[in-house]
Amino acid sequence: MKKPWIGFVVIAWLWAMPTLAMDFKVVFEDAAGVGFNSTEPFAGHGANRASTLGEARRNVLFRAIDMVRSQVHGDGIIVWRVRFNERAGYLAVTLGPAFQEFTSALSPEQNVAKFPFEHGRHYPGPLMLALTSLDSSYADDSGEDATTNFSAYGAYYGYDTNAPTHSFIAVVMHELVHVLGFTDIKCLGNCIPAPVSKPTHFSKYVFGEAKPVDGMSLAELNALYLSRDKLWFTGSAHTQQAAKTLLSGGHTNGSLHLHAEAPYDGQNGSHFAPQMFPAQLMYSAGANTTDFGMAAYVLCDIGWCAGKGEVQDLVVSVATNPMLSNEPSLLSATLENASDYAMTKPELLLQLPASVQLSGLAQGCALEAMSASQQQLRCQLDSLGARQKHRFDATLRAAKGSYALYGRASIKSYAVDPIGMNNIVDVTLSVTDPVPLTVNLGADVEAVAGTDVRLTAQLAGGSGSYQLQWQQTAGPTVSLTQQSNSISFVAPEVSSTTKLTFKVTASDGRQSQTAEVTVTVTPKAKPVEPQPTPPPTPTPPPAPTPPPAPAPQPSPPVQPASSGGAGHGMVWLLLLAVWRNRRRWR
Question: From 530's CA, which of 96, 129, 254, 452 has a CA 20 to 30 Å away?
Fold first, then answer.
């Protein structure tokens, strides 16, 4: 893989299985403190929570291997040596895989009619191993099926591809597809010691337009492998139809364009052309993706479908209920066939700590011990129809704590799965102590006879799923109507203040609590007889206005009084007599 696209030995075995399956033996060849053994602090990328850079790189490598093991099927062990070794201009360079020529030295029982091998044609070791169970690797680690040198250009170490350029997991997936045999035995141009070309599992499907490359002279091959759009991979009818359906560029009538650019290097012929669209994992300059894309169809054609399988997409999902300490909880795992072909022998493997108890296993599931601390749940189906789903259930029980649940789904027959990311299960189970259940009916209630009364239970804690039982414990019996977490009734007729008591019992299946409330009912008030309204008092007519008083007349002059003490009285009598005579005169 080329950019900008893309003695210390540690041996790692992945997922040692009780039964045969394709496995990887990874040999880390970096010196202490560098590459895959780097002790540089690591802050975490995505779901990769490693503490050192070396650990983060190893985590990504193992995740990519697990994805690939879920996408292709075979028995045996692939030895892969890896190290960080900067190669100018490249994200990674893979030497290999090692090839083996098929000859009569292979007995008929080793061929077992799994695949129509051709005498004289060369096949990569991992593919030979998968199809014949003939191990061409080195059990003592003195050799390898392939060696890959990685660079630090792909510096994002999450398990996803959320990087602005290249995620390391995309680089690793690209190189693993080469290890599986997406490559050829050709060394053209100024090859040292001399140019070479041999018929292989891959070259069988490669054409210079309509002419097969097998049998071409080195001069013809040199010209063809620099011809840009004239070097094609023409696979099965299935592959050609997929190209027409899935690609909007980079194919001619379903024949896939291969990389053929000047100047010649080892990438020519072993990668897709950059004109192919959508972007492909197996570009020479790579794409930031983990999906096989059209490489799934190439792998199927060159042998990983054993000449009879299909490209099929298996999807796994896992769901759990909230888990409480030492209480049973449901685990549901679903396998989905997202393709248009029925698949044979889909399988789910889930690893979890031995301290987690499993029971009530669904049919087709079995629990296997892996070590003193780990166990494995294996669930299998004979077949799964096109676009169908199947669910496996089990019951979990564990003490308070966090538990890692990790696994993968795969097709245990000769099919190629184009998407490995949706085959992986990576879940953390959090087990907590039960939250205390509480129930409250609130303050006591007052009501008048004949009116509607509603009582509501306020619930909290527990599992969140409640059952309520209501009971009247005192007072005149009333008819209760229950709705959800409330009851209602009509306050009874009473002749004096009366108390009614009610109790509710709440349960979540694990805990139960009760609460009580008192309803005080008062009699209805007696009706008051209405009094007649007296007629209005008539308003008396207004009194007549008296005539105005006459203006006062001047008093007659007063005569000098004679002597004697009674003079004044005489004067007033005379004045009165004059006044009367005056009125009479008027």
Answer: 452
C-alpha closest to that of 180 among 10, 417, 20: 417
| Six token digits for residue 275 | 């004109």
Q: What is the Cα–Cα distance from 566 to 432, expressed in whole angstroms?
A: 130
In the 3-class helix/strand/coil scheme, how is 201-269 assigned residue by residue? CCHHHEEECCEECCCCCHHHHHHHCCCCCCEEECCCHHHHHHHHHHCCECEECCEEEECCCCCCCCCCC
175: helix, strand or coil:
helix
> Reduced to 3 DSSP states, what percent helix, strand and coil does the chain have, rounded to the nearest 5?
15, 35, 50
- Secondary structure of 389-408 in HEC code, one letter for each residue: EEEEEEEEECCCEEEEEEEE
| Sign of the alpha-carbon torsion through 273, 274, 280, 284 | positive
Contact 294, 257 (CB under 8 A): no
- Report the run of H or E that residue 174 belongs to, with start and end: helix 168-179
Q: Who's near 24: CB < 8 A, 6+ residues apart?
A: 13, 14, 65, 69, 77, 78, 79, 80
Which residue from 334, 277, 342, 293 is spatially nearest to 71, judged by alpha carbons?
A: 293
pLDDT at 108: 52
Interatomic CA distance for residues 234 and 256, integer angstroms: 6
Name which of 194-203, 492-501, 556-565 the model is least confident about.
Answer: 556-565
Provide the pairing of β-strand 323-324 with 424-432: parallel
Average pLDDT, the chain: 85
Query: Which of 317, 315, 344, 342 minimizes the C-alpha distance to 331?
Result: 317
Three-state DSSP state, 505: strand
d(C-alpha 302, C-alpha 235), whole Å: 9
Distance CA 216, CA 55 (A): 47
The pLDDT, as a whole number, for residue 538 is 72
Residues 324, 328, 332, 333: what is their CA dihedral angle, to the nearest 10 degrees? 90
- Per-residue pLDDT of 278-290, as tens digits, reads 999 999 888 999 9
Residue labelled with tokens 């070097």: 231
∠ CA(174), CA(178), CA(184), 5° rounding? 140
- 377 bridge partner residues: 350, 367
Are the C-beta atoms of residues 181 and 127 closer than 8 Å to each other? Answer: yes
How would DSSP label each residue in 369-436? E-SSSEEEEEEE-SEE-TT-EEEEEEEEE--SEEEEEEEEEEESSS-B-S-SGGGEEEEEEEEEPPPP
Give tens-digit pLDDT for 202-214: 999 999 988 999 9
Task: Say whether 358 sits in a helix, a strand or coil.
Answer: strand
Q: State pLDDT tens for residues 38-58.
A: 999 999 999 999 999 999 999
